[in-house]
Structures are given as structure tokens and as C-alpha cells.
Amino acid sequence: MSNKRVIYILLTHSGSILSKCIKTYTREPYSHVSIALDHTLNELYSFGRIKPNNPLIGGFVKEDIIRGTYSRFPNTTCALYSLEISNLQYNKLRKEIHKFKSEKEKYGYNLIGLIGVMLDVPMEKEYNYFCSQFVATLLYNSGVYLFRKSAGLVSPKDFRQCRNLELMYEGKLMDYWKEEKLYYSSIV
Question: pTM of the entire structure?
């Protein structure tokens, strides 16, 4: 039995107003980061829109490619990366995610933190995160150290440039989902 597990980092650009603003400022291809515990992206978590039709209320979300916010943006582009971690780190990560899931109503979106990234000054508020800050915090709290900076300064670019991550797929998110669905329905 292997003592290693694989997790996944999903970078996306949906084309929403906020994602377009972030992309314009950063000149990066991706403006959002999520973490997945499976390559089918059924267990996909981040900080973003709580309700797909309301961009103003954000917080901790279990993202759903088919029925969630991504369904409103069918041309979402993505890059999916894999990362091998130890069983101990994986178990800590699951506990961290469970903590967010069980107390999700107390978390909010850290919009001011995005300004902090622009100013290179972490602006952290308890129970508030933006997407890349959330994923970096989960990893740090699980003993996975990919970056030498505060989680409040980590951006999608940092994940894209991280040499510890292995690129698995790049293209349209819906195309990836359809390929995975076809593959798994053919072997079941």
C-alpha cells in the first residue's frame, strides 16, 4: 500500500466580470484557484460565489461544474495540476476541508485581500479568504509548503508557476469533464 496520495489544483478563467478584472490586471490566463480531492472534480472546493446567479455574496463553496457557477460560463478555460502528498498530509487536508464544510456559514469572501495582493501587503481577516489564499492556507495547514510567502499573497500565477505541480490538462473545463465522464462510463 502506497503512503502517497494525489490531490488536484484547478486554475480557471470563467469570463465573469470579476475574473475579467483580475485577468486584465494580472495579465495571467487564469483568475481562480480551486482544490480537488479527485481527478473527476466531484470534490472541488474554493472561495467564490455562494449562489451561481449572485456575484456579490461569496464564501466557502463546494464547486459543481455542471450545476454551479461554471454552468453559467460554459467556455471556462482551465489548467488542471496534480500534486502528490503523503497520507498524513492528505488526512490533515481532509480534516481542514471538513472544518470549512461544517462551519461554512461563518466564512466570507476576502475582497479587500485582493487589493492586498496588488499592494504586496497581506490583508487578512479571520474567516475571510479569496480563492488562492484559501487553497494556500489549506495546503500550509496540512503541512504542504509550496510557496515562501504569506497565504494572503498567493495568487493563481504562483500555482501556475509552481514546479511541484504537474500539468495534467489545459483547455476548456467542460471538455475535460466530458472526457472524464466518457472514460469512466466506458470502464464501469
Answer: 0.93
